[in-house]
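hey m, so remember when u said the C-alpha cells were messed up on ur end? i reran from scratch. heres the input so u can diff it against urs
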Amino acid sequence: MGARIVVEAAAVDRLAELGLSVQILERVVRRADAEVSTCTPLDPPMMAGLIRWARTARYLREELVPAGWHFDNPQNLPRTIHPSGDFAIVAITGDELTGGLDVLPTTKHPRGPATALAVATNEQLPFDFDGFDFGLAPGRTLDAGHLLTWILLFHVHDEAFQVELSLPDAIEDGRITGWAERIIVPPFPREPVALPDVSADLSMGEIVVEVNRR
C-alpha cells in the first residue's frame, strides 16, 4: 500500500495535530542554513552537511522543548519526543526527491542500525491516521524504546528548502524504502548562500604566526 500523502491546508492541520507548524519547520531549516553559511573552503568538505544536520536537530529541540517536548539520543539517534511519549521526530538529510509528489524520497546517505530499529518498530506498532490515536489501550503510553518515529526529511538547493515530515515503514540496506504517511510542506524560497572566498587572502603570501617565549 502506498503512502498517505498530506498536502496544502490538510498538511497544516496534520502538523497541528502533531504539535508542529509550518512556521516552526521553516525557522528550523533557515537557522541551520545560516550556520552552514559560516563554512569556508578551509573547512573539510563534509563539514557543511554535518553542521546542517546537527543544527537542524538542535533547533528543532529549541523550538519544541519549551512546549513540553523532551529528547534522548539512543545509539546516537537524536530523537525529539512529543509530551505524550507516543512518538518522536528525527531530523535526517533527504535526497533530491524530498518534498515531491508521486515519488519515493529517501535519506541522502544510508542509515545505521538505530534508524533501522526505529523503522522496524514503526512496522510493528498500530496507528490510526484519521485521529490522533496510535492504537494504544486507554491510559497506556509507549515506552522510550517502543514509540513511533517520524522523520523530518529536508533537502536544500540554491532556490528552496524542500521539507516533509514523514512516517517510514520500510527500510533496506540503510535506505528507507516505504512511507506510511508523508506530510508535504510547501518549499521555502531560499537565497543562494555562497561560501566566503578566502582565496585572495591566502594568495597574498605565507601566514605568519608569532609565538612569544615565556
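this time it looks ok to me. The chain has a mean pLDDT of 86. if urs says something different then somethings off w ur setup not the seq
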